[in-house]
Amino acid sequence: MAAQMTDAHRRFLQVLMSHGIMEGSEARKLHRRCCEIDKAYYAHDKLDDFVSVINSHLQPLFMQVRKGMSEGDGRVHYALVNLAETEITKMASDYTENELELFRKTMDLIILSESGFASSTDILNLADQLKTKKMKKKEAEQVLKVFVEDKWLSERNGEYTLHTRCIIEMEQYILSNYQDVARKCNICHSLAIQSQVCESCGTGMHLPCVRKYFRAQTERRCPHCNDLWSCDIPGTKR
Q1: Which of 172, 155, 154 has its CA nearest to residue 163?
Q2: Reported pTM
Q3: Pick from 55, 154, 159, 200: CA 20 to 30 A from residue 47's CA?
Q4: How confident is the model at residue 87 (pLDDT cuts 50, 70, 90)?
């Protein structure tokens, strides 16, 4: 039998729904605040148990609070995910057909790239090649801005990648539709878009996971095939 939902659980869920995604430290603060306001039991290390209670009640609604990692800095995030639809069509109510087509093509560029990024130039060049309805580059720039604001894409110096929210929400869709190229991190076992890859066996790892893994190793060797890890790891010394 599922544990009872309290007002603290409901309050936490409402705030998370309004944000869509929340960084782990913020989620922990919210957990504490909700428990204090509603005089519910609180333990600082029981956030995941607290979330499990929420998930047990969300299950019939095909919703779930899911935990994922930022590929940029390795920080944990919590996101509310719709499980009823696993495809990009779940975005259909928010975007037009040609906006969705631009998103799909942008996702193609990002996932098929070696770096996990796509340049704004390459994305904007797709705007007048859309089958649904061509876009002017100015219009496409505005659509990309909306995708960033809605936390489907992240942008850094004119380079775009998938936002942590997108990766958490679309993980199964990406693994199913990009089977030849999509891979899971060998360390955390989550989908890895931005990753380093072993030249010998193709094993991939998120950069934060690479740093963490090799910090505890005397030699930089692939955890899968044991060959020397040839990639440079920014922010660390050999």
Answers
A1: 154
A2: 0.85
A3: 154
A4: low
Q: Examine residue 201 and state whether it is found in any structural domain, yes or no.
A: yes
Mean pLDDT of 194-213: 90
Tokens of 163: 């936002």
Task: Transcribe 50-80 into DSSP letters.
Answer: HHHHHHHHHGGGTEEEEEEE-TTT--EEEEE
* Mean pLDDT over each residue of the chain, to the nearest integer: 90
Q: Do residue 151 and residue 210 come from a single domain?
A: no
- Maximum Cα interatomic distance, the chain, rounded to a whole number of Å: 57
The pLDDT tens digits for 111-154 are 999 889 999 999 999 998 899 889 999 999 999 999 999 999 99
Distance from C-alpha of 144 to C-alpha of 105, rounded to nearest angstrom = 12
Q: How far apart are CA 29 and CA 62, in angstroms?
A: 26
How many domains does the chain divide into? 3
d(CA 235, CA 166): 26
Containing structural domain, residue 142? 88-169
Compute the average pLDDT of residues 76-90: 77
At residue 24, does pLDDT exceed 80? yes
> Are both 44 and 113 inside the same structural domain?
no
**Do 164 and 204 have their domain in common?**
no
Cβ atoms 71, 206 nearer than 8 A: yes
Q: How far apart are CA 233 and CA 52, in angstroms?
A: 36
Check residue 237 and give its pLDDT.
58
Q: Give the pLDDT of residue 1.
A: 55
